[in-house]
Every structure is written in C-alpha cells, then in structure tokens.
Specification:
Aminopeptidase, globular, alpha+beta
Length: 152
C-alpha cells in the first residue's frame, strides 16, 4: 500500500469534501477549498492524499507574507493512527520545500496528536500562539517550524 499526493478536480471534489477528520480542530474541507480559491496566494498547492487510489486525506500549502505554510493536513478518521499522516507529511514537506525553493516550512495546530506527529518529524515549537476564528469557533493554535532541507 502506497501513499501519494493526487489532484483535486471535479471528478473527486465530492469525495474530498466528504472526508471526516473526526476533530474539533479542523474546519470542513469545503471551507478550506473555498479559502484556497479566494485568498490571493499565487504560490500555493492543494492535493488529495491517496492510499493506492483511494482518497484518504487532503492538504494545502501556500506562501503568505513570505512564510511557507502547511495550512492543512487532514486524514479521514477511518485511516488515522496508521502512519499515513506521517508518510503524507514527508511527501508534502518535500514537495513544498522543493517547489518553492525554501529551507523552512511552518505549521500551526491546536491538536495534541498532530503536535506529536510534527515534533517527531522534526518540527520545532516557535513559541508563537494564535487565536483563530474559524467556522468551528475560536481555536488556539501553536506554531511549529521545520527548518532543515530534507535529504530525499
């Protein structure tokens, strides 16, 4: 079984918005896709996360105020805690750093499970904490940075 990044288009849009993150920390995918389209970030990408050919997750990356951000990484609840998120994270970071010629990428999370995964991968807490108004309410998130070019 292989994890890969795929495209989001009209043929799989409904599958992507029906994914269930089973988390109070994650906005609905339809909101994130709209946000991706509406915000003026010329340097960005959005992908499905595939297990073989099945869509199991969704990711968004963009550059905002000259900061490369992993804005979204979600895995459907049926596929969580199986290592797929960690494998996808490696692919996403590699793609982002190479695509945008950067040596660091930032992520914010309010989830202890996600925080543990990011730290295990090598992300470091920057000390920044944000209060963010989202469709699911006010969310408190910590910021992390991965600041080393990966050797892939």
């Amino acid at each position: 079984m292989a994890i890969a990044l795929g495209t989001i288009d009209l043929t799989n849009f409904l599958n992507v918005i029906q994914l269930d993150p089973d988390s109070s920390h994650v906005a609905p995918n339809v909101y994130s896709i709209a946000q991706f389209g509406l915000y003026d970030h010329s340097s960005k990408f959005m992908n499905t996360i595939l297990l073989d050919s099945e869509i199991i997750g969704f990711t968004m990356v963009w550059i905002k105020e000259d900061k490369l951000e992993l804005k979204r990484l979600m895995i459907d609840k049926k596929f969580q805690q199986k290592g797929y998120g960690s494998t996808a994270l490696k692919l996403i970071v590699k793609k982002a750093l190479n695509m945008f010629c950067r040596n660091e990428i930032y992520v914010c999370t309010g989830s202890e499970i996600a925080e543990k995964m990011y730290k295990k991968f090598g992300f470091v807490d920057t000390g920044a904490i944000y209060e963010i108004n989202t469709p699911i309410g006010l969310v408190i998130e910590k910021e992390f940075v991965y600041a080393e070019k990966l050797n892939f």
